[in-house]
Amino acid sequence: MKRYIYTKRLKDFTQSSTISIPQDPRIITAKEQSHINNLPFFDHSLTDSKIPKEKQHYLSEKLPAVKTIFGIDPINPAFINHKIPKNQPIPFRKLSEVQKKNRLSVTDLATKSWCELRLSYDLYSDFGQFKSRHLVSGTSFHQSLEDNLYGINKEWLKFNDDFKLDKWSKKGSVENLILDWSDCVIKLISLFKFGHAREISCHGFIEYEKNESVLISGIIDHLSWKSKKELITPDFQNTISYKKFDLFDDIFKLNSDIGQIIEQLEITVPQRLNGRYDLLVADVKTRSTFNIPQQTSVLKATKLQLMYYKKFLTQLGKSPSKTYESLLTNAKRKNIDIDEPLDPLYLASLLIKSPLFMSDMRRLRDGKKLAFEQFDLQTSNSQYNLSELGDVVPNDNSYNEMFREFFTLWERPFTLRYLALRLSQLYHIIGSLVSEKLLVEYYCKGLNFSNVLFDFDTDELQKNNIDTMMFWFGKRDIEPIYPNMKNILTYCKYCDYRSLCSWKDKSEKLCGELGNELSKIME
């Protein structure tokens, strides 16, 4: 604080020639005392920047709701209490209630990325985070990166539109999870074709009590193969490039059968990549200016997020049989029936999206084994009859010709079990090759203007596990930002709750008292 006050005084001295410097610089004049008292962190009337009408309406409903839920501060009734009321559920139960899901996301594990009190107010308000223009544009940019790599399958979109297949996007449906997992299979295979992949699903479980764990889901923004030499180059993070990757071209030229491709990758990946290449896990952050965040908590949260992704990928890669069961547990935790056969029309849509699955569908149709014991031994009582699909898809439709061989009674239905099998094999291929280095990619206006490379830290991750689980499962109180002037100016200035937050009010008063004490000491 001394440094800030001294800098402020120097600035004032350079701007006004009417202030005289006293003989003893330790003595604060009356005018200087006035300047100290009027510093922003002692000012309770920070002016709001112009707030859009949509945000004003959002705040007009959210703030009263939060005040009703948390109640007034017992010391200062003009402000909201900063402790979760005893009549409210623990944070995890509240999140499950609001989002209709019994799990956490990787981003949920960084409760202190900004301010844990703000996160708690938002959570219990039922309003969630306001979707700002920057937030929407960030989502759009991630989609554009994905589309640039994989292209847009217009034929698949048209088929879905023609047959009104809207369950693909229905959260919590078996169709939505099948689309997610099938996309992940396709993308992990493309990782060996293009050298990098985007928007890859992963998951893990964290124990919060003995024999009790919570499912954690995440989506990795970017995976890429990098040579070990490249990763230790001093200026690597300033010269990141994505060159043509052709180490496995021979496999893709010879095969269109997903089973044979995976079998060949299992043999050749250790030979061609081990000791030479690492799989680099990266997170893409969009910025409104060409600057990386200055807040330590934001930077730490991003690093933790990447460390969880690395940890999960490594765990998923250890044993195909255990990962197969883990994926099925994942689905069960989402209350999805792992043995529910996929609607035939949706299966047709999936084959249009990626003919890569065609050979395996023939195996399922004919009841052939897929050389994976846990899957092959599983029997099904469900009839999977696609003979009526020929009546749904017109004879003059090109799709009728494409799928005609499947218009029959299948020996085995297409379910999530099949995708769990192929995903577990692919995770196993890449799991041991995940780099100890992690990368944050910063973009502004479509340009990658900065990158931060750092090392995985097991101790830091474990420390966060304990802390964040204690918060979500009600084992500790909310821990707001540390009450100092820098945090007030950084975190509170534009917070939705700045006019009602009792923690901010107490922190400002504390800083004011410290300022007065400092001035008395220096008199």
UniProtKB/TrEMBL annotation:
Its cofactor is [4Fe-4S] cluster; Mg(2+). Pfam families: Exo5 (PF09810). One of its GO terms (molecular function) is single-stranded DNA 5'-3' DNA exonuclease activity. InterPro entries: EXOV. GO terms for cellular component: mitochondrion; nucleus. GO terms for biological process: interstrand cross-link repair. Keywords: 4Fe-4S, DNA-binding, Exonuclease, Hydrolase, Iron, Iron-sulfur, Magnesium, Metal-binding, Nuclease. The keyword Iron applies. Belongs to the EXO5 family. Monomer. This is Exonuclease V, mitochondrial. It comes from Kazachstania africana (strain ATCC 22294 / BCRC 22015 / CBS 2517 / CECT 1963 / NBRC 1671 / NRRL Y-8276) (Yeast). The gene is KAFR0E03070.
